Amino acid sequence: MFFPGRGETAGPARQVCARCPVRQQCLEFAVSNRIVYGIWGGLTGPERRALQSDWLRAARRDRDGAIRAADAAGITAEAIGRSFGLSRMTVTRIARRGNRDARAEPDRLASQTPPLREGGR
């Protein structure tokens, strides 16, 4: 039931999962261990892969924000890297990208402002 063949429905397994008290933990286990076959937490492999991409993007966004905050607080790239298990170079790249993104918005707006004509017109 939890490993339907090609063309078979996942409906019966989904019904069991809908009533399961550990559905979320089951799904998290399958996503974190990259299990591609079977119904886990009520989702099929392709559904879990899509969810995994969303989770990964959110986790990286949170991690990068914390790295930029630590960098802004004056913590060294080496110390930040040790905390996150990253190299100094990776920490520096993330911090610089954040600084570049923060500066890009005002620069974009400035480039859309029409230049003043000479003579005040």
Task: Present the secondary structure layout.
Layout: H1 11-18, H2 23-32, H3 45-72, H4 77-84, H5 88-112
Tell me what the structure shows.
With 121 residues, this protein is mainly alpha-helical. Helices cover 65% and strands 0% of the residues. The chain has five helices and no strands. Helix 2 (23-32) packs across helix 3 (45-72). The N and C termini lie far apart (77 Å). The model is unreliable at 104-121 (pLDDT under 50).
Helix amount, in percent? 55-70%
Q: What's the story with the biggest beta sheet?
A: none
N-C termini distance: 77 Å
β-strand amount: under 5%
Number of strands: 0
What is the N-to-C order of secondary-structure elements (H for helix, E for strand)? HHHHH
Number of helices: 5
Low-pLDDT segments, ≥5 res: 104-121
Q: What would you call the structural class?
A: mainly alpha
- Average pLDDT figure: 83
- Give Rg in angstroms: 24 Å
Described by the principal axes of the CA atoms, the overall outline is elongated
